[in-house]
Specification:
It contains eight helices and 13 strands. The chain starts with a strand and ends with a strand. The protein has 273 residues and is of the alpha/beta class. The chain is 29% helix and 18% strand.
Amino acid sequence: MAVYAIGDLQGCYDPFRHLLDEIDFEPSRDSLWLTGDLVNRGPKSLKTLRFVRELGDSVITVLGNHDLHLLALHAGAVRFGNRFGSLEKLLRAGDADELCDWLRHRPLAHYDKKLRTLLVHAGTYPRWNVKKTLARAAEVEAALRGDDYINVLGRMYGNAPNKWSGKLTGYKRLRFIINCLTRVRMVTEDDRLELKFSGSPWRARKGLLPWFEASSPAWEGTRIVFGHWSALGLIVLPDLVSLDTGCVWGRQLTAARLDKRLPRVVQVEGQYL
């Protein structure tokens, strides 16, 4: 049995199917981890979401920020705009309710003890170890699956608060957790999230650093697999695997095999929009 992780799909169905062929993925035998952002920008969000759902228990996908925005649009928590026109076909599909209900029940973080590996969309907080990351993710997961989920989706937008406190409550607490797991790229030296920056890390202003370079992180000793940051690109280190290689921008879609000591990396050409 092989365990492969694949970076952000963003509606790039054809490269996804090509990559699965390249790694000889067999649902009855293998496991697939997806870093989230299954939808938006690419041409086939509906087909991608349907296919991932059909893979059943062979696939684990965490929620990304684009997935959450799809849920907010579907729930009527936010207004539809031209920026998200690639989601219109999905939202009008006859099975949109079933697809979004399935998506709403996906986790924000997944951990495999045997592989010593944590899967998230964007990152985690420097002072959260694996146990705390999973606990914080579970808070949001419970809220998204509860009766108040429309309000949760509507109130998740915004960059504040930008520093964690155990005293945070309500929507502010949920917003921070969502931002940390699905939007973070850079942090300050005193552990504040900098959510406006999206470029290459070496272009950041002084005092900002990638979340995974924070000093003495609580997750040390755990391998973290993530996507979200196409400007960062591919990184494959013993304790860090970055897999958003810009498929939707015409670069590559990347898979990394996680159950081997040295991850095998396979790439296919991306989707030109």
